[in-house]
Design a protein that fits this description.
By secondary structure, the chain is of the alpha/beta class. The protein is built from twelve helices and eight strands.
């Protein structure tokens, strides 16, 4: 299986009530994710609340995860931003020992045009010592990495290993699947689109819901890689409503509520994020109860 094919988990960063990182809970979660069948873990992605982590916390968090994973699965680190020179400096200065790859989100807020996006990722590709996974999530960044720009990057820079696509645009993603270089990975960035995208040829998912249901979601992804649509469809339909609910009132508030419900970590998030509303919490509790029966 190709590196970064299959199930990647965009892991949460658990916090204590005082706001500090809860490393004891994280240690247990890492075992839970690996035992559940994760093919790789993504540290400090959006789900990890990276914008609220200080530089020293990022280094400590990454080192802790690598130490606890013990090379059992690859570790990917999120390094991105909307200042190209700063992102390059982060790549050059971060301790990337035992890191398998870098996930880098498209620049946010600035709303660069396609040439700006191409030049941004060109700079990162030239600076990166590791395989680079592009991350397109227009709903968060305010700009869309077009398939033409993605393919231009993919053909020019072999170090760009693939893209996490969370645009929700099936036409756009299908264009990538049709025209990509042979070894370029197209990875779902939306849990509820994983099955249809993999049916069209996508290579897996970087998942949020798998934080709480790694065994189920790894089974779904591996079934799709084997062409076992019946097994994958059954799991997809069982988890479909939960996936909708965990994003209903902000992420990662939703998935952290589920993890707390399952006793895996506390639900605390850092401002400006907040816990899910009571109404959403009740709906999540009901759905988790159904899944456990």
């Amino acid at each position: 299986m190709k590196l970064f094919q299959g199930l990647g988990i965009a892991i949460v960063t658990p916090f204590q009530e005082d706001g500090l990182i809860d490393y004891e809970a994280l240690k247990g979660l890492i075992e839970f994710w690996i035992e559940g069948g994760a093919d790789y873990l993504v540290v400090m992605g959006t789900t990890g609340e990276t914008p609220t982590l200080e530089s020293s916390e990022k280094e400590e968090l990454l080192r802790f995860c690598i130490s606890e994973v013990r090379r059992r699965v690859p570790v990917v680190v999120g390094i991105g931003g909307n200042d190209t020179r700063n992102v390059v400096r982060q790549i050059e200065n971060m301790d990337l020992r035992d890191v398998a790859g870098i996930l880098s989100v498209a620049p946010y807020y600035n709303k660069p045009n396609q040439e700006g996006l191409f030049q941004h990722f060109s700079m990162l590709a030239q600076a990166s010592p590791l395989p680079l996974i592009l991350y397109n999530v227009p709903g968060r960044t305010g700009s869309n990495l077009s398939p033409e720009t993605t393919l231009r990057l993919a053909h020019k820079y072999p170090i760009i290993a693939g893209i996490k696509e969370a645009s929700g645009n099936l036409d756009q993603i299908t264009t990538l699947l049709r025209d990509r270089p042979q070894d370029f990975l197209v990875i779902s960035g939306d849990d509820n689109l994983t099955l249809p995208l993999m049916a069209a040829g996508a290579d897996g998912v970087i998942s949020v819901v798998a934080n709480a249901y790694p065994r189920e979601y790894s089974t779904l992804v591996r079934a799709m890689l084997k062409g076992d649509l019946a097994t994958a469809r059954n799991i997809h339909l069982r988890l479909y409503r939960l996936v909708q609910l965990i994003f209903l009132d902000g992420s990662p508030g939703g998935i952290k509520h589920v993890l707390a419900r399952k006793g895996l970590c506390k639900a605390h998030v850092r401002l400006p994020l907040w816990n899910v509303t009571e109404q959403v919490a009740l709906q999540l509790d009901e759905e988790v109860k159904k899944l456990e029966n």
